[in-house]
Please model this.
Amino acid sequence: MTQHHKRPDGLPAPGAPLQHYVSDVPFDPNEGEGRLDGMAEASQLQLMWWQFRRHRVAVVSLVFLVLLYASILITEFLAPYHQDTRHLDDIYAPPQQVHLFHEGRFVGPFVYGRERSLDMENLRRIYTDDKTDVQKLRFFCQGDDYRFWGMIPASLHLVCPAEGGNMFLLGTDRLGRDVLSRILYGARISLTIGLLGVTMSLVLGIVIGGLAGYHGGWFDAATQRVTEVLQSIPSTPLWMALAAIIPVTWSPILVYAGITVILGMLDWTGLARAVRSKLLSLREEDYVLAARLMGAGSARIIGRHMVPGFMSHLIASATLTIPGMILGETALSFLGIGLRAPITSWGIMLTEARSVNIIALYPWLILPVVPVILVVLAFNFLGDGLRDAADPYK
Model:
């Protein structure tokens, strides 16, 4: 550009041709690759994870459930007492409050001792805090003896009451057993029975629904009639009828296995129908025909090529099925036809709160329903997040 085409301020004059700037730097095809968001090269799993992270409630629910299931591995260590430890002087004791300051001075976590008296008019025990008796809590301490996972003898606990004192953060029941400790022990049964039941339900649903959707014919027709019959029967009466078949002479472990089998065998119908409908559409795809022409068997085509195509849907369905099984076990145990003592579960603990008078006088006995509600909500939120993540392109 010549000098007479420029104005005194250095800008091009009106009507003057614009100067073109051409870079003579060699072209680098990889330049800027690090600034790409990676969407085009990301795997399906990465896309699902990015989509799942956007569902904040589902992420919080996942963290909560992971911590909860991890806690059942060390229940004996976390529980202040053994589940069967009885405190005969503290029957129906209300929850104690943890304090940090005493008379304006920082002491650390502690509870006040209690004075007991009898209310002869209402025939109940009265507990009042003794503000002069400061019982400082101990951590990583020696307490009730137990066998870790029924094998290793130990007595180490995360938190213990003061020497010669008691600590009932959620109160005690009619036998003087600590409610908090029993809730922690009950989580091991109530949470695992859902996982085992869902595992059985997934296996039955994928196998039966997969064969019905892939082969069709008389097997499909027979499967659909059986599914319709099972789904037409009300769940609770059917559970009650099957649970009543379990002999009372069975050991607690056999009863636990029997309840798990019952829950798993009755919840496969919905999943089987979902798998069948999906496979009915997938069996006409080209890759299925190619696998069949190459000599692949039915089991390989279904398990290796068709089922992985909607595995995210199966995972989401499983997370929504687990809370139903937890509620089923809770309902059966609450009605007295499910798990029985000495096994401890949330449903068994709620049997002590069946009376309105008990709830009115000792409302802390209904606290086991809180973890049931939290777990059910967490699984439902997690299922919503997984269902949204199953379609990361929307």
